[in-house]
Structures are given as C-alpha cells and as structure tokens.
Amino acid sequence: MSNTTSRSAPVSQKERVTSLDLIRGIAILGILPMNALTWGFSDFAGYSNVRAVGTEQPFDWFIGIASKLFIEQKMMALFSLLFGVGVVIFWERAGSKTAHPYWLSLWRFTLLFVIGTIHAWFWFGDVLTAYAISAPIVLAVHRRSPKVLMAVGVGLVVIGSLSAWLVQIGVNDGSYQIGEYWVPGGTPLLESELLTWFYADAILRSIGLMLIGVSLYRLHIVQGQRSQEMYKKMACWGLGVGLLVTCGGVAIHIVDSWSERTALVGHIPLGLGTIPMALGYIGLIVLWKNDVSKLQQRLQAAGRMAMTNYLSQTVLGLSTLFVLAQEVELTRTMIFVWILLIWALQLWWSPWWLQRFRFGPAEWLWRCGTYRSRQPFRRSTN
Question: Per the domain annotation, does 137 fall within a domain?
Fold first, then answer.
C-alpha cells in the first residue's frame, strides 16, 4: 500500500467512541417508525396527520400519538446531531493522515450526495442528500466557539419551524394547497406548492442540528465524558421541557380535530421540541451506557452500520410494506408489528455482520470511494 493510502486509511476500531455508536444505533432504529408510515400508507398524510388514515382502533391512536410525542423528528434530530459530529471527527482524523482534509471531506460529501440521489430516486424521503448539502457549510464554520455554534444551530431550527406559520397563512387564504401533506387523496407532495418549504425546512434543520451536534462534541457531551449529574439534568430537563412543548403541538391538532386550518401551526411546537428532546435522549442514553448489556452491544453495531441499516430499511420497506399496502389497507398497529420485526432483524444482523467484516457494505463502499482505493473488508480469521 502506498504512503498516500496509508495516510488516508479509515479510522480503526480502537479509535471509535462507543457512546456515539450507541446513540447513532438508537437513532437509526428510531427513524424507521417515521419512514415506515410513508411506505405503509398511500398518502404522506398518513405520516403527518394521525387522523387521516390507519387509526381504526384505540391502539392505533395510541401508537400515532406516542410517535408524535417521542419519535417523530426526535430520532431524526439525534441522527442529524451525530452526523454533524461525524463530519468533524472525519476532518480531524483526516488532518493527521493527509495534507488536504478539507478537499477529502468535500469529495466524501460528493459521494454521499450521489448515494442519496440514487436513494431518493426510489424514495423521496431521503435525508442523505440534505446532509451532503449541509455538511460543507457545517465544516466551514465548525471552528467557531461551541456557544456560537449552539446559538446559530438553535436559531436555524427555530427559523425553519416558525416558517410553517407563513405557509399556514397561505394555506388558509387559498394561496397554497396543502395536498396530501395533510389530506388523503390530495395533490401529491412532490407536485405541491409546499414542496419548496418542505425541503427548505429540511435543509435548515439539518444544518442547525448538525451545528448543535458539533457544539456538543466540542463540549465533550456526546462522548459521555461529562459528570453523571450533568447527564441526569440533561435527561430530566430535556425530556421534561421537550415533552411539554411537543404536547402543545399535539394538543393544537386534537383540539382542532386535526383540521388543515392548523396543520402547519401544530408543526411549529413539534419542531421546536426536537432540540430539548434530543438533548434529553442523549443524557438518558449516556446514563444507560454505564450499565453495559448485550442490547447495547447490538445497538452499537447497528450504529456502526448506520448507512447500511438506513438504506436496507428502505429496501425492505418498499419490497414488503409498500407492496403489501397495495393489496391490504394497513393500520398503524400492523405497521408497528412490521417495525418490530425489522428492528429485531437489524439488531441480529448488525453484530453478526461485524463479527465477519470490518464495516457494513454501504460504509465500505463509501470508504473505498472516499480514499479511492480498496479498503480492508473481511476480518482476519486468525
């Protein structure tokens, strides 16, 4: 192997931060309930509007409301935070192995954009393209102080969330059609006037949450290196405040009978609640990490194979859940059972795979492309 290749070799297992893998593993499994709704229901309304479809029984309602409170956007926020951390970790480690860490990072983001574009061709809900677009911006400012990064990150998330108010005004005065974002059988989201807002909000949130993640990394919080007392406060205050704010959004929908008049207004507290909820989850996960278990090891393995698991969720969702939905009218309970099966499958195959291979298949291909050379794949049998 050449000296250049050696300097650009990927991070070894000994260099990994296990708390990041654990948080990432929980996040990658946690985003499945969000995405599964878009595969199991023919309209996007099934995801955004609990009343729209799939709530035939009380347990369906319970699943729908619980998802709004504890999962929707919260797990994606965790995933985005960790991606921001990954951007900086890669840049730092690449800086000790190559003279051009910034250009290597940009090349890596370009490959991610290509992967995301291919993924988006099959399913419009892809987040990899948004991350690939956001990452260079995050990398350009990551040396700012943690306070500045946190302030800007929170500000971008707030702006993205509050922008829903302006769109709601347009919907209510007839300027925009809310379409299938809220109403089953409405104008497809990809053809709706809301599409620009939808993607702009996604980019703002991606950049904002990634900056928050970098701030938490610079403060040694996501690495699990702060005091137990701090993580207890994060868990209590984060989940307490986050749930209170999120409940406000759900209450708006319930009081107005899930009307399209307040569809996007209710989105505002749901979006604002993601930051304290994500911080609360990080505190809770780090505290749990101190009690090592086999489940944690499986979740860490799932986190190490995050891209593979994310893409495979789409493959499994489109090939099973989406196909089944064409023949049967699914409920939220049915989709929840499917989610449990996929969770079990990914918690089984992730450690099984990593016992035999160094990386997940998608991660390995991305690494080979990043370093433009074939990377070690199989583990030594010695």
Answer: yes
Q: Number of C-alpha atoms within 13 angstroms, CB side, residue 83?
A: 29
> How does 327-364 read in b/e, with b if 16+ C-beta sit within 10 Å?
eeebbbbbbbebbeebbeebbebbbebbeebbbbebbb
Q: Is residue 244 part of a domain?
A: yes
Q: What is the DSSP string of 245-312?
A: HHHHHHHHHHHTTT-GGGTTTTHHHHHHTHHHHHHHHHHHHHHHHTS--HHHHHHHHHHHTHHHHHHH
Encoded amino acid at 68, one letter: K
In a domain, 195, yes or no: yes
Identity (one letter) of the amino acid at 378? R
Cα distances from 244 to residues 69, 153, 231, in angstroms, run 9, 21, 19
Distance CA 13, CA 363 (A): 14
- For the whole model, what pTM was predicted? 0.92
pLDDT digits (tens, 9 = 90+) for 186-196: 888 888 888 89
Cα(310)–Cα(127) distance, rounded to whole angstroms? 10
> Residue 263: what residue type?
A
Length of the chain: 382
pLDDT digits (tens, 9 = 90+) for 149-208: 999 999 999 999 999 999 999 999 988 889 999 998 888 888 888 889 999 999 999 999
- DSSP letter for 321, please: I
Is 367 inside a domain boundary?
yes
Count CB atoms within 10 A of the CB of residue 34: 17
38 to 127, 148, 171, 265, 328: CA distances (angstroms): 14, 36, 22, 21, 15
Q: Which domain holds residue 69?
A: 3-371
